Amino acid sequence: MHYIGIDIGSACAKLAVLNEAGELVLKHIQPTGWSSVDTAQALRLKLEKEGICLEKSHCVATGYGRISVPYADKMVTEITCHARGAAWLHNDSCSLVIDIGGQDTKVIQVTGSKVVDFVMNDKCSAGTGRFLEVMGSTMGLRPDEICELARKGSGVAISSMCTVFAESEVVSLIGRGEKKENIAFAVVESIADKVISQSSRLLTGSENVCLTGGLCGCAYLRERLSYKLGCPVAAHADGRYAGAIGAALSFNGFQ
C-alpha cells in the first residue's frame, strides 16, 4: 500500500509517495505546462514506471490543477495540504507556514498540522515566484541568480506592488545604469515586504515560521524574511513538496 500526493500548481507539479511506515519513498517535480490534464497523465506514467500501483494505493490531488487528476480518490485544498505537509516536514514545530507559489502566496497559521487561519494572495502575482520570473526575464537572470546577486546590492527600492508597474520600474533602473546587484536587491526586498504585509494579520509575536514552495531554497530571501519578521524562518530541503506530502497524508487513519 502506498499513499500518493499530487500537487499540480500553476508553475510546477509535485508528486510525493509515502509507504505504510510513513517514509517518503518517491518525490518528483516537473513543469505543469499549459495542460494540467497532460501533466496528470505524465505523473500517472511516472508512478507506473516506478512500480507504484494506483489500484493498490490511495491517491489525493491538491493545488491549482487538482480537478484534472481523474485517478485521484479525492481532492483536498492546498491550504490544508500545505499545513499538513509543513507540519510533517518540521515535526509539528511550525506555527506559521509561508508558501510562496508560482501565482499566489499563502500564509497559514497552524497548530500541529491543523489550520487555524490563513490569508492568500491570489489576485496579484506580486510577492510570488511569477514576480521573480518576470523580473529575472527583464534582467536576463534566472530567479536563483537574482537571489544570490541581491546579497551584494543595496540602496534601491521598487515602489509598486503591481508586477506590471514594477517591471516598468526595473526597466527604468536598467536604463539609467543602475547596478544589477542593486536592482536584484530591490526585487527581493519587494517580495519580502509583500509577504510580510500579507502575514501581518496572523502574527502573534511568538512564531515558529517555516517557508515552503518554490522559493524555499532561496537562502537570501529567508534571511530577509527572518530579519523583517524578527524571528528565524526555517526551510526543509523537501519544502517545495509540502503540498504533495500533505495530500499523501490526507487519508484518515494514515498517521
How would you sum up this structure, described in words?
The chain is of the alpha/beta class and 255 residues long. It is 38% helix and 23% strand. The strands form two sheets. A five-stranded mixed sheet has the order 3-2-1-4-5. A five-stranded mixed sheet has the order 8-7-6-9-10, with helices on both faces. Helix 3 packs antiparallel against helix 6 and helix 4 crosses helix 6 (180-199).
Features:
single chain; 255 residues; alpha/beta; 5-stranded mixed β-sheet; 38% helix; globular
Give the topology, please:
Blueprint: E1 2-8, E2 12-19, E3 24-31, H1 36-49, E4 57-62, E5 74-75, H2 78-89, E6 96-100, E7 105-111, E8 114-121, H3 129-139, H4 143-150, H5 163-175, H6 180-199, E9 209-213, H7 219-229, E10 233-235, H8 242-248
Helix pairs in contact: 2-8, 3-5, 3-6, 4-6, 6-7
Order of helices and strands: EEEHEEHEEEHHHHEHEH
Write down the overall mean pLDDT: 89
Low-confidence spans: none
Secondary-structure content class = alpha/beta
* Helix share, percent: 25-40%
For the record, give the distance between the C-alpha atoms at the N and C termini, rounded to a whole number.
14 Å
Strand order within the widest beta sheet = 3-2-1-4-5
